[in-house]
Recover the amino acids of this structure.
DNA sequence: CAGAATCCGAAAAGATACTG
DNA sequence: CAGTATCTTTTCGGATTCTG
């Protein structure tokens, strides 16, 4: 059992210790739509390197947030899915998505004609 | 006007570009309870250094999330408060707090007797 | 395909000392 | 009180190469 690395005991810190970082929320958000294999996640997140994606997924697995399933096939196939605990993060992820969409909308109005587009909203 | 540093246009990335990082969500959460001065924030977040607190507050100010008010007094006094845009982050912050409390509770049950305490829940 | 291993530069963050 | 300035340390993360 991993120790919570929250020194002040703040509830927000606890959450950040599990799903904080640049990539974890994005990975989790994509997994919200269902099980995905490694290559699918990599394609969905163009800016992540193979290395970082692997590292983040391992940490999420350790925290019990995602489940990793390896199929003994050739070519190899590995699936990632949210666990029940992982799915419990949905409200947080949805709140983040909603705010991001609203914010882009506001910015879009000010950067008239810049064509701000927020995809992967589903 | 600062550019959104979201390369893939994912709404979650937009949110992270504004309130991502180790300290910003915690700072914002504390400001949710009302205007606070610099020293009050520093006390509320024991693990942050003066330097990091300053840097994060400056970034939040630049993003239009917090408002900084300097009073021409001796000793100096500086207040930080959420702007309207900042307050719109409340659902995200509350979702994070709620999840953190639930998670600590689960962990607490498994680490029986460890005395997990999550404060600053208000 | 899904990674593991290694190397390396950049960036984040901490400690400490100083100031209007 | 509310910061700056500077320095050092640590971590992050990219590029590349290799493998079952």
């Amino acid at each position: 059992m991993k120790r919570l690395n929250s020194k002040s005991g703040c509830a927000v810190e606890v959450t950040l210790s599990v799903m904080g970082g640049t990539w974890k929320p994005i990975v989790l958000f994509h997994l919200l739509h269902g099980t995905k294999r490694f290559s699918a996640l990599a394609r969905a997140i163009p800016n992540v390197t193979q290395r970082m994606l692997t590292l983040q997924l391992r940490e999420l697995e350790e925290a019990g947030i995602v489940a990793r399933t390896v199929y003994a096939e050739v070519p190899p196939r590995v699936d990632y899915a949210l666990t029940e605990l992982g799915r419990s993060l949905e409200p947080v992820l949805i709140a983040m998505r909603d705010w991001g969409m609203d914010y882009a909308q506001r910015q879009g109005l000010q950067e008239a004609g810049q064509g701000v587009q927020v995809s992967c909203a589903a």
The longest helix of chain B spans residues 90-110. Chain B has a mean pLDDT of 88. Residues 21-22, 49, 51-52, 55, 76 of chain B lie near DNA strand C (CB under 10 Å from a C1').
